[in-house]
Each structure stands twice: as structure tokens, then as C-alpha cells.
Design goal:
228 residues; alpha+beta; Arc Repressor Mutant, subunit A; 2 domains; 8 helices; 38% helix; disordered N terminus
């Protein structure tokens, strides 16, 4: 987690030139977001050659550091040495030195897919709990983090997102809550009449009420299911 501490109020080392002090204080004021190299000249209002020389001096003494933006390695941000770069610069936990860590992401996607398959019907929280209990990861990722991976599985068409109707196989998930199922599992025959109700995969189930805008009485899919 980045350090969002307030800039140090003490005056920089007296060995700094006045130009170096201006640059150091400017960079430090940006905290973990740092400042893009192109913006340094504009905000410091110093000649380009002076800025370049001063930055080189601050870097060599370890007072500041240059971090590449994850979207472009040629785009550098300068930060005071006491700050860790924000995810807005590094790309977050799924990036390693500015590049997407595809090997780790693929591994975690495989773990989540395995747990969703075992759980039959899963929520982000139940998948996250299963991943934690497996202890295959050295870092404890939050449900929000795991939710990003599950979302990627949906985009990959490996998992389908549904809304629970609170019945049958969805009984453990509150009605209207988002839940997930492996796409290959949907090919398996469902057991029991309640499990086959189309409400189980309806994205509007949370809004469905008798007499409402979305209602069983006006649902063509529900009518077809009853006729069948």
C-alpha cells in the first residue's frame, strides 16, 4: 500500500542548490502520484537544461526516483524517495515493473475457476474465501481483488454471471445477488422444476415484483416455461 503521508516540512539538505530545492519540493508535494517528466519543466518554471541537471543530481543522491508508467514505459514519473508509487502509475497488483504479470493472472484465474466449479454456484466472497483457505497465495487478496479475476473469467467466456432468485441451487445466495457458474456446468441437466425457472438467469430478477414494471405476469419467458 502506498504511503500517503504528508510532505516532510523540514528544509531539504543545505547542499542542494536553489533550483534543486524547487524541484525537490515540487516532486515531494505530489506524493505517491509523482509528477510526469513533461510537467516538471512547466510547473517548476526553470530552464530545461537546469531542470535536467538538477533532476540528475537528485536521482544520483537517492532523494527522488523515476518510475515508468504502466501504460508507457517511456513515460516517467518522478517521486520523492519516501513514497511508493500509486496504482495509477504502476497499474496495480497485477502488474510487475510496468508489465501485466500474465503468468500470475492466468494462475489465479485457474484457481478461481476451479473453486467456482467445485462450489457449483459461487459469489465473489465465497470464491475469495476458498482461495484464502487453499493457501496457494503468499499474499492475502481482498474480495474486490478476486472480483477482478472473476470478472476476467466472465469476459473470457469461461464463467457466466447470473442473478440469484433465492430458490433451488441459488438458495445460498440472496435473491437479486450476483453469482457465478462455470459455463461448461450449464450443459449439465438440472434437477427439479424449480431449478429450471428462467428467473435463475434473468438480470432483472431483483426488480421483478407482482404488478411491477418487471412482473411474472408480463414475462414472456416465464409464460413459455409454464406452458412447457
Amino acid at each position: 500500500m502506498s504511503k500517503r503521508k504528508q510532505p516532510d516540512s523540514k528544509v531539504p539538505a543545505p547542499s542542494m542548490t536553489e533550483q534543486e530545492k524547487v524541484l525537490y519540493n515540487l516532486i515531494q508535494s505530489k506524493q505517491d502520484l509523482g509528477i510526469w517528466s513533461r510537467d516538471v519543466n512547466r510547473e517548476a518554471r526553470l530552464p530545461n537544461k537546469v531542470v535536467a541537471k538538477s533532476l540528475e543530481s537528485l536521482l544520483s543522491r537517492g532523494l527522488i526516483k523515476a518510475v515508468a508508467h504502466f501504460q508507457s514505459k517511456s513515460r516517467k514519473h518522478f517521486l520523492a524517495s519516501e513514497f511508493e508509487p500509486s496504482p495509477e502509475i504502476t497499474g496495480g497488483k497485477w502488474y510487475d515493473q510496468g508489465s501485466l504479470d500474465t503468468e500470475f493472472v492466468d494462475f489465479l484465474k485457474g484457481q478461481c475457476l476451479k473453486h467456482i466449479r467445485n462450489l457449483k454456484i459461487a459469489t465473489v466472497d465465497t470464491v475469495a474465501d476458498a482461495v484464502r483457505r487453499s493457501r496457494v497465495l503468499k499474499v492475502d487478496y481482498s474480495s474486490e481483488d478476486i472480483g477482478e479475476i472473476v470478472g476476467a473469467l466472465v469476459l473470457d467466456n469461461d464463467v457466466i454471471e447470473m442473478r440469484s432468485n433465492g430458490l433451488g441451487e441459488f438458495a445460498a445466495v440472496p435473491a437479486g445477488g450476483a453469482c457465478y457458474k462455470c459455463r461448461d456446468a450449464t450443459k449439465e441437466p438440472r434437477v427439479g422444476a424449480m431449478a429450471s425457472i428462467p428467473c435463475g438467469v434473468c438480470p432483472e430478477v431483483a426488480r421483478c415484483t407482482p404488478g411491477g414494471v418487471v412482473s411474472p405476469a408480463t414475462c414472456e419467458y416465464y409464460s413459455k416455461w409454464l406452458d412447457f
